[in-house]
Amino acid sequence: MRFALSEEQEAFRDTARRFLSERVHLREQIAMPGAHDASLWKEIVELGWLGLEDATFVEAALLAEEAGRALLPGPFTATLIAIEALRSAGATLPEGACAVALDSTDVRFVRNRLRGRIAAVPCAEAAVTLLVAATTPDGPAAFEVAASEATIEPIESADLTRPAARVTFDGAKVRQRFDGLDAMIDRARVLTAADAIGGGAKALEMAVAYAKDRVQFDRPIGSFQAVKHRAADGWRALESARVATWYAAWTIANDADDASTAARAAKAMAGDAFARCAADSIQIHGGIGFTWEHDAHLYYRRALADQATLGDATRQREAIASNVFANA
Q1: Burial of 111 by CB count in 10 Å (0-12 exposed, 13-18 middle, 19+ buried)?
Q2: What is the CATH number of the domain that holds 243?
Q3: Rounded percentage of the chain residues whose pLDDT exceeds 90
Q4: Does residue 1 fall inside a structural domain?
Q5: Do residues 174 and 197 both lie within one domain?
Q6: In what order do the strands lie in the sheet containing 98-101?
Q7: End-to-end CA distance of the chain
Q8: What burial letters (b/e) apply to 19-38, b meaning 16+ CB within 10 Å?
Q9: Mean of the per-residue pLDDT values for the chain?
């Protein structure tokens, strides 16, 4: 199989990259309530990025990658996940910003109402719609519910670009119920992996650019073997994860039998690659990389959040191994 984008996909990606590079202003936007820039959101909606027509899941993954590269603050990626998850269920797509918690086990569906509490939901403060998982007498399912039906309390969050909130349901009415939770989670894993790929690529680019300019002992630090090896290892991990993520997106777009395994593999590889590249970026930048003024720590914060979302690499690999042995 040839892992390459079509000319149309490359043009679509380049357009998204140019727009986000011009419109994302991290420091201004993370200071806004919920890190949600309403004017930028309006422009994104007008571009048609939420609910792409005549597009496959691969294009959605490309958007998530570019959003990750720009470290786009606010609920865009969560909304994209919700839209693609609901699209897979053939449901009516939500309007407005969304927050997603598909791996929660603390919410119950009792007598046609949701009850329980989720400790931390990214972007819940800015959301109009919530897509959450809950236990039912028939097993776990996903539910769409208006954010106004829940009590949302902002909490301290490691990822400043996606502030988290505690979400409590006390008899919340649901709009729609979906039993295809596993398929929704697979899509969320791939879009989270794509976000991580974009973030990791930008973190590594920042580090390489700095290593070319920073001079010590009359030489650019990028000429030192230890720095070159660190950057090269990060690039190798990132490119391997990118191929895994694109393949996972393709399997979902084409209903392949190995879609779930591919989604888990992409999530594991991309999460680890992003964390590695973000950490190495801080190290290569040296003293300035540890300061509040530099953006390196913002990428590292996002990396830790992406890594933990829907289960870390260890959890994904254990699930893949269990499936392999079960079918051996």
Answers
A1: exposed
A2: 1.20.140.10
A3: 79
A4: no
A5: no
A6: 98-101, 129-134, 141-146, 176-178
A7: 25
A8: bbeeebebeebbeeebbbbe
A9: 93
